[in-house]
Fold this sequence. Notes:
By secondary structure, this protein is α+β, with helices and mostly antiparallel strands. It has helices spanning about 5-30, 40-65, 80-110, 130-155, 265-275, 305-315, 320-330; strands spanning about 165-170, 175-180, 215, 220, 225-235, 240, 245-250, 255-260, 280-285, 295-305.
Amino acid sequence: MDLLTLIIIVLVIVVSARIIRVLELSQQLSGHPVEEITEKDNKTQGGLMLVVLILGMIFIAYTTYRYGKLTLPAPASSEHGVSIDRLMNLNYVIIFTVFFVTTTLLFYFAYKYSHRKERKASYISDNHRLEIIWTVIPSIVLLGIIGYGLTVWTRITSADTTGAKIVEVYGQQFKWTARYAGADNTLGFANFKKINVSNPLGVDSTDDKAKDDVLTNDLHLKLNEPTLLIFRSQDVIHSAYLPHFRVQMNCVPGMLTQFFFKPTITTADMRTKLNDSTFDYVLLCNKICGVSHFTMKMKVIVDDESAYDAWMSKQKTFAQTNSAKLKESPAVKQEPTEIVSK
Length: 342
Ligand SMILES: [Cu+2]
């Protein structure tokens, strides 16, 4: 503890002692014990309960209006996103209704029934009817929300993924890489032992299925195309979060996770809708994964078919990039240093 902290503590003690002394003296002067609660005190406290209620409600209304846009951005840009929004909105309606009713009653009753000399509180030990009501009603509401939520989640995660375009999203401290499965729509084998500077995803170049894989730094999706994102992580747990598409999935080292969805609004259409020519979809990391966690962000672009095909035709396959690299720098020919295999 440094000297300054010590001085502050001593000063606080001295000031407190002085305040207590002043209170004692004022009590002697007024003739009332200072701890006695007067009728006036009760009135003031009751009134303050109303003030807190009103100011609190104004504060909540303001922050909801001001910061509401920081919740899921509207409109949902995926097919299943619409049902997620419906579920969220129902939850918001229930939560806000219960909150406003109970909070208003709580503070209003504290005001209305503040102590008065002529009023006597009645003694109630228990009331079975009331207890049943306040247990059964919330239970039914909660069961309803949970049942509805589980139904929506099961429908989203158990959707038929046959024929979906397969794209791998690879997380590492602190960047994302996308890997397209290529013409065969099958991702080539990858192994952490193959990871090196020129092959950060550890793709196995001897696997024929890997040759047509395409690695990119942006994630391009085709409008209305059923897409299966497969997530991997190199180091720690990351969480791939695509707020506009209502997609989020953990990326866990040593295992594959996935999310199936269908983008329904192109980037261009979304720009028109939002009247913002600079708008872009994003994929963010939503799990604090290290010091530069906040920089883990990948641009996501939803193209219509022709734009997507034009973009894809310009990308180099894993085999092409690899042979180009070998030609460019003979240094890469040397046995690559394995950075993770221990
Ligand atoms: Cu991360």
